[in-house]
From TrEMBL:
Its main location: membrane. It is a multi-pass membrane protein. This is Sialin. The gene is 5564465. One of its GO terms (cellular component) is basolateral plasma membrane. Residues 27-454 form the Major facilitator superfamily (MFS) profile domain. Keywords: Cell membrane, Cytoplasmic vesicle, Glycoprotein, Lysosome, Membrane, Symport, Synapse, Transmembrane, Transmembrane helix, Transport. The keyword Transport applies. GO terms for molecular function: symporter activity. It comes from Aedes aegypti. The lineage of its organism: Eukaryota, Metazoa, Ecdysozoa, Arthropoda, Hexapoda. It is found in: Basolateral cell membrane; Cytoplasmic vesicle, Secretory vesicle membrane; Cytoplasmic vesicle, Secretory vesicle, Synaptic vesicle membrane; Lysosome membrane.
Length: 483
């Protein structure tokens, strides 16, 4: 059942939409929002903390003289490796996350991914004092745990979200990532200045552990396993999603067809492109604001958060707009995905170009804020593609595209670190220009190759063909007997 048809079916619950606790699927969305909040707060806190860890501080020596020292005297290239190390582990658990979510349930694997990252975050200060290598090692492990979270998210929504609500439900949940980014970047500067850089990891680690305990208590594997859900809501989700309670969960994915599919390739390239701009700024923006635009640590943390606040707002609004355009029949799913993704990419490359040319505080911050904010619009395009192409394989498809995208998280900070060895304006202009070129490539590829339709190789399409074939054979057998 498509989005337009499912929108005409009521879930039978007599309560306004704002009373989300009356609908169990909305409770899952609310908890997933907080889950992605923790995913990104645990991911980005190092971007601000590393500024405090490596900045020159006044030190009074035993003989009474005053000097300036860094607690961790790491070069810009070493800092680049530290900031990118998270993605070394993140790459290798993307497809695994999709596979495990099919086998054990997206909600179960999602919780374990965040809970494991939280525990490792609490160990970070102790291990960091043993050397940069230890910090890199723990960040690799954190990346491995968090690598499963986005593939699990798509697997969750393939069973929890009716087709007519998938864009808005996904966008609301994913908005938690930007809320986490905003809070982490803003609060990390305050925590580091007031109680030392170690407090950044202790605070967000504890918050994530508390969330994991709540997740275990409140969220179940699927509507079929949720004893708190009303039968009306359960039937609504099952019918509109075209599922049955006895559907086989250990599915066999058409790997070769998926990996050679043009829409999957387009989706993966779009993920690489968006994540290049996103993670280059996510890891480098605090340093850029402090060294080039001369803001202090707390100001850098606050201003670094602004673009992600804009991204979260635009993501939520775009999710509702995408569903509305499809339900009203103004645009097809393919058109929505292409217009949102390519339109956002064009806006981003224009803003990045202007910001690089001007490179003064107010205009550059405005351009960067708009550029990153438009990423929220793009997310309602390419990031939701897996649910369009094959819902039953959506977790694996998300793992494939997000796995390729993680390459940007690995390479981007390292490239930035090597380019900005002296943190001059010209060096940072080069960083911006590289992002512009990558956005151009992504726009062209996605426009010509992307699709928002169920693919011929999808498990759903295969089942439909088999069902039609069986019905045809059955009718033929009946007719032959009559003859």
């Amino acid at each position: 059942m498509d989005a337009i048809e499912s929108s005409k079916v009521s879930d039978g619950i007599d309560a306004p939409l704002w009373m989300f606790w009356k609908r169990r699927r909305y409770m899952v969305v609310a908890m997933a929002f907080l889950g992605y909040f923790n995913v990104y707060s645990l991911r980005v806190n190092l971007s601000v903390a590393i500024v405090a860890m490596t900045e020159l501080r006044e030190v009074v020596h035993p003989n009474g003289t005053v000097g300036f020292e860094r607690e961790f005297d790491w070069s810009s290239s070493v800092q680049g490796y530290v900031l990118s190390s998270f993605f070394y582990g993140y790459i290798f658990t993307q497809v695994l996350g999709g596979y495990l979510s099919n086998k054990f349930g997206g909600t179960n694997v999602f919780g374990v991914g965040i809970g494991g990252t939280a525990i490792l975050t609490l160990l970070t200060p102790v291990l960091t004092r043993q050397g940069a290598g230890w910090l890199i090692a723990v960040r690799i492990l954190e990346g491995a745990f968090e690598g499963v979270t986005f593939p699990c998210g798509h697997a969750m929504w393939s069973v929890w979200a009716p087709p007519s609500e998938r864009s808005r439900i996904s966008s609301i949940a994913f908005t938690g990532a930007f809320a986490g980014t905003v809070v982490a970047m803003t609060l990390s500067g305050v925590l580091a200045e007031s109680w030392g850089w170690e407090s950044v990891f202790y605070f967000f680690g504890v918050v994530a552990c508390l969330w994991y305990m709540a997740w275990l208590l409140l969220v179940r594997k699927s509507p079929e396993h949720d004893f708190r859900m009303s039968q009306k809501e359960k039937d609504f989700i099952m019918v509109t999603s075209g599922r049955q309670e006895k559907d086989v969960e250990n599915v066999k994915h058409p790997w070769m067809a998926m990996l050679t599919s043009k829409p999957v390739i387009a989706m993966s390239i779009a993920s690489i492109v968006e994540d290049w701009g996103y993670y280059t700024l996510l890891t480098g923006l605090p340093t850029f604001l402090k060294t080039v635009l001369n803001f202090d640590l707390q100001e850098s943390g606050f201003l670094s958060a602004l673009p992600y606040l804009a991204m979260g707002i635009l993501l939520s609004a775009s999710g509702y707009l995408a569903d509305w355009l499809q339900i009203r029949g103004y645009l097809t799913t393919t058109q929505v995905r292409k217009y949102f993704t390519c339109g956002a990419f064009l806006g981003q490359l224009i803003c990045m170009m202007i910001g690089a040319l001007v490179l003064s505080p107010a205009p550059t911050i405005l351009c960067v804020t708009i550029a990153v904010g438009l990423g929220g619009v793009a997310w309602c395009g390419y990031l939701l593609n897996p649910l369009d192409l094959s819902p039953k394989s959506s977790g694996v498809l998300m793992g494939i595209s997000n796995g390729f995208a993680a390459i940007s998280g690995v390479i981007g900070p390292i490239v930035t670190g090597y380019i900005t060895t002296n943190n001059t304006e010209d060096e940072w202009r080069t960083v911006f220009y590289i992002a512009v070129g990558i956005y151009i490539v992504g726009t062209l590829v996605y426009w010509f190759w992307a699709s928002g339709e169920l693919q011929p190789w999808s498990l759903e399409m295969t089942q439909q063909k088999n069902q039609t074939r069986n019905e045809t054979n059955y009718i033929s057998s009946i007719e032959s007997k009559q003859v």
